[in-house]
Amino acid sequence: MRKLWLLLGICSLSLQLNAQKAMTSQDSIKVFYDKLLPLLKSDYVYKKEVDWKTVSSETNQNLKKYNDFKSSLKETEVLFGKIKATHCKVIYKDKVYGVTLKASAENLSQQWKDKYATKPGFEVKVLDGKVGYIMMPGIKSLDFSQENTHKTAQSMYDQIAEIKAKNKLQGWIIDLRLNTGGNSAPMLLALYDFLGDNDIWGTVDVNKKQKSKVRLEKGKYLDNSKKTSHITPSGELLDQAKVAVITGQLTASSGEVTALAFKGRPNTIFIGEKTFGMTTANVNVELPFSTVLILSVALDTDRNGIYYDPIIPDIAVSKQDNFNDLLADKNVQEAISFISKK
């Protein structure tokens, strides 16, 4: 009997291998898009605004021109563009496919472009001996595991905690101008001291009905009450401290979620430019051939369920960045003025 099962297993494997060999490039393309299109039709946040019959027909017609599966992924840019799914992406072998959105270079200061070109990392420092300054850039890692999120967040949190412990500061600046997105969980965990034990953001459907809520509680990140990661906090909370959040026109996606977490927080002001307006919540969905779909399924809100598209600052400052000398930066000057007022 054992030999029979082994033989059957070998035969089964042989049949699978032959089937894989027999699958043509067009077969692979069809398998993939036959999964992708229905998924978009059922779960995409703006699905009811799409003429799916026309979109499906045009997409299937366009797919005939591709000779292999990998090249066919270029069609996702066309497809996502038609349905205005500018926040959706397909990831295959560490390459990202989808609509590429670009801000007009003439609307960006030279200082911003120069700083962004250096691929800036996380920074925390003291300005003028009285104000804490945090540069929170985008976090682009595709590793969303609890372990990696904790490791990334804890490192940033510890740097903030050290500055907090060694200095008596009047307030803090959180600079999101260079935060073009990525994974918001480590960003928000790193900023736990400022957000405290509170609901910090959530999602709603297109009818503004609540779908989810995210909360921080004693260093834990709770998504609909489920712990997804954590940091180990130290020292006192800063949830009542004065905070100035600086945004720019390329503050986008999870950068905007990080900004939203401060909406409704006391002693908080927003300074800079309106954000990019990519405030849709995404989930990761596994598709055939080891691809992953980043799918927009809801709208991002602040802790009170209010949706913003985009986030408008309380004090507008445009193209007056100075990353070489932060005290000469108009955004920072406005932030310090707010923090210094009694």
From TrEMBL:
A single GO molecular function term of this UniProt record: endopeptidase activity
SUPFAM superfamilies: ClpP/crotonase
Signal peptide positions on this chain: 1-19
GO cellular component: outer membrane-bounded periplasmic space
Domain Tail specific protease: 84-318
Keywords carried by this UniProt record: Signal
Signal among keywords: yes
InterPro entries to which the protein is assigned, alphabetical: ClpP/crotonase-like_dom_sf, Tail-specific_protease
Biological process according to GO: proteolysis; signal transduction
Keyword Nucleotide-binding: no
Stored PANTHER family: CARBOXY-TERMINAL PROCESSING PROTEASE CTPA, TAIL-SPECIFIC PROTEASE
Protein known as: C-terminal processing peptidase
Lineage of producing organism: Bacteria, Pseudomonadati, Bacteroidota, Flavobacteriia, Flavobacteriales
